[in-house]
Amino acid sequence: MSASRPADGRPPQRALSAGFADFVDEAGFRRLIGAGAPEAARVRDVLARSLAKEPLAPDEAAVLLRAEAPELVEEIFDAARRLKRDVYGRRIVLFAPLYIGNLCVNDCGYCAFRASNPDSVRRTLSPVEVEAQVAALERSGHKRLILVFGEHPRYTPEFIADTVRRVAAVRTGHGEIRRVNINAAPLDVAGFRTVHEAGIGTYQVFQETYHRATYARYHPARTFKGDYDFRLDSPNRAFEAGCDDFGIGALFGLTDWRFDVLGLVAHARHLRERYGVGPHTLSFPRLQPASGVDLAGAPFVSDGDFKRLVAVLRLSVPYAGMILTAREPAALRREILGFGVSQIDAGSRIEIGGYTEAGDAQVMDREQFALSDLRPLDEVLRQLLEDGHVPSFCTACYRMGRTGEHFMEYAIPGFIERFCTPNALVTLTEYLQDYASAATREAGRRLVERELAAFPEGAAKESLRRRLQATRDGQHDLHE
Ligand code: SF4
Ligand code: SF4
Question: Could you tell me the pTM of the whole model?
Answer without folding.
Answer: 0.94
